[in-house]
Amino acid sequence: MGELTCTPFSRVVESIAEVYKHRDATEALQLFFNHVRFEELLCVLAQQNVPGKTSLDPKRAVERSIAYVEGHYQEPLTVEQLAEEAHVARWRYTQLFKEMTGQLPLDYIHQLRMNQAKQILLMTGDRINEIAQNVGFNSEYYFNRRFKQSVGLAPGKYRNIHRDDLRVVSLYMEDYLLALGIRPVVQWAHTYWGQQDYLGLHDVPTYDVLTDDVQLLSSRAPDVIMLRECTGWKENAYAKCARIAFTCVIRQFGPEWRKTLRTLGDRLGRSELAERSIEQYEQKVRAAKNVMGSLKGQKVAFLRIAADQILVEKNYTSQVLFQDLEMEPALLVRKQFAKQVREGVSWEELSTLDADHIFFAFDKWHQGKPGAEQLQLNHPVWQALRAVQSKRAYQVDFMTWMNHGVIANGKKVDDVLKVLA
Questions:
Q1: Regarding beta strands 194-195 and 187-190, do their DSSP bridges make them parallel or antiparallel, or are they unpaired?
Q2: 147-179: pLDDT as tens digits
Q3: What are phi and psi for residue 80, nearest 5 degrees?
Q4: If I label 116, which of 83, 162, 204, 295 is the partner at 20 to 30 A Cα–Cα?
Q5: How many CB atoms lie within 10 A of CB 421?
Q6: Whole-angstrom distance, CA of residue 274 vs CA of residue 228
Q7: Helices (H), 22-154
Q8: pTM
């Protein structure tokens, strides 16, 4: 073959030195290792001296280099070394590598290592230091640090969270958990509103967010506690929960429930289930719109009725009614939506409600007597509303409609179809 290409030459020297160091070995396993080292050296030389390889164009050379990285990411790799072996200038190598993968070389290698580490964590019981070495880290400490930077959790916590029998407490977000195939070990409840009966968690213990102490959660032996950013909890709730189990804070995106579901799906390793739930909801919406085509132009409102006020509700309902189902809001609804503050409407304002259809739910959290909220329907203004007189005012379940979850939103679509189609 003539003179061989040996780049980087230091790598060849190191291989030869390793073989030479163990030249006098007699133990069978050490002899075998030495034989493997020698064959690895031959492979390095052969890969660099394939006939016609030096005439490869830079893109083809980087493509081969990427394939090599995917098979050898556990080894110590540098951009200089990869560029030299591809016979491409370092700056050009980095440029082409990013064009082909969307990432810089070292970021790409890091992602390969992290993905492999996550699989090993979930599929084996290997120790963390063994996994670190397996994916190319000499230091368990450094592996732990990089893994947490990349994934957001330490390796051990990641393994626990992704167990199939994971015991999760995620107050206010049980809807999302069920959509991801996880049954919570406790569910939130409210002294006045009750519990989320629509989820069918009748055998799951409740935690009253108004009266129960955080310490009660310890009796449920959770593996992980997931807190919402905006829960209204006391400031020390996180510290208390962290003493019970691994605790993380999840940002909930309000009406943008798809983002919340995807966030939880990513954290729990169930992104595919998140996407499947979203697609099933979209299919239901498309089918509903086809059925409701004849209602186009009719105006709709949703009212939240308590003993002391009536609200034109928008936070939990407008996404489904006016965005997904593309129904038309009544004029009073538009006016209330334009206001920055959340406030009730006066009877005088309510008298102008020109909705063809009214959906409403009773809010039981008030200072009046039990059932006082229902007395609002006896008011002359309510009785005079066009939708009420034509029997187009529909009571729906409060907990279902005052929730952003994908299951709740699917049931809202069902409710609309039930009364309008």
A1: antiparallel
A2: 999 988 899 988 887 777 788 999 999 999 999
A3: -60, -45
A4: 83
A5: 12
A6: 18
A7: 28-48, 58-72, 79-86, 90-101, 105-123, 128-134, 140-151
A8: 0.68
